[in-house]
């Protein structure tokens, strides 16, 4: 069986859908032939076999920032990926197209119409309002895979029938090996303070402003917030920190290498994801794998991961007071915090990448018949 993935972005580009695509492609390359067609990345070859996956990179421009892709870059990729994919489909006799997100799905729809081979679409985030083109692309897919029940509902609203819910995953072993490193705290100017950490794109949808505002409400004298990530909202968030007089409480670390994220999570005492929308929330799984108690907003696919009071704390979106109250509860009730951590770690078995890949493989088998 041969699978082609027309992906606008692929490893080493950072993001939830990219993590999903890489893990599924590499694990299933042991059972099927996997081809990935994606955009060029500076410093990487245009064609290679990496961890069993055959990768073609094609575009006019090369991506330089692995954490942020301008819309113009993504749109210019479409004809390049389309024609390269069409060539590979005909040359390699591809059996199934597995698309990632709407734009990739749009290519899958066109390629499927031309070649008569089935296409699957995976969606990891709750998208903006659906439109006529999205409905056509999603309804014609042979299978729509959503990362959460919230995305399943989104598909149902567009009239899709063949829907599967398969979550993102986490490599637990990659995160469990790290203990809190006092040298990293010292390097960041953090002593024995209660350290709250968030890892997110600094965009409006991630709700970081409400976490910053919560720091002003927080009744913990020796506490700090470490923000890991980069985005268009950084300057606005830094201005908010100054306006609230929180310069000594909030530190922006910027984007760090994905491989180093576990080391920084391990120095924290609590993790918060204050998103306004969230299709899934892979950062939650990573924080839980390290052993942090997690607080997150009750939106989108987050309730699929967090059971309030059992595997974490859910709070309303846009509510700094609720965030501050939840942080204080974790700080002041050690046994409760430890219970959250233990329950969350037990629940992580549901997000084992091998199990997730097997679910996708069963879909491939069904379509190939």
How would you sum up this structure, described in words?
- The protein has 15 helices and 14 strands.
- The longest helix has 22 residues, at 71-92.
- Helix content is 43%, strand content 18%.
- With 369 residues, the protein is an alpha/beta fold.
- It has helices at residues 16-28, 71-92, 101-115, 132-139, 149-157, 172-176, 182-187, 208-217, 234-243, 261-265, 282-290, 302-305, 320-332, 334-347, 353-368, and strands spanning 2-6, 33-38, 47-50, 53-57, 96-100, 119-123, 143-146, 163-165, 194-199, 223-228, 250-254, 270-273, 294-297, 313-315.
- The protein has two domains: 2-169 and 352-368, Rossmann fold; 172-350, Rossmann fold, CATH 3.40.50.
- Strands 3-4-2-1-5-6-7-8 form an eight-stranded mixed β-sheet, sandwiched between helices.
- It is globular.
Strand count: 14
The CATH C-level class name of the largest domain: Alpha Beta
CATH-defined architecture of the largest domain: 3-Layer(aba) Sandwich
CATH homologous superfamily placement of the largest domain? Glycogen Phosphorylase B
Report, as a whole number of angstroms, the end-to-end distance.
11 Å
Strand order of the largest sheet: 3-4-2-1-5-6-7-8
User: Strand share of the residues?
Assistant: 15-25%
The SSE order reads: EHEEEHEHEHEHEHHEHEHEHEHEHEHHH
The radius of gyration is 21 Å
How is the CATH topology of the largest domain named? Answer: Rossmann fold
Total DSSP helices: 15
* Structural domain count: 2
Task: Give helix % range.
Answer: 40-55%
- Structural category is alpha/beta
Question: Can you give the mean pLDDT?
Answer: 93
What best-fitting shape do the alpha-carbon axes yield?
globular
* Largest β sheet strand count, sense and barrel closure: 8 strands, mixed
**Ranges with pLDDT <50 over ≥5 residues?**
none
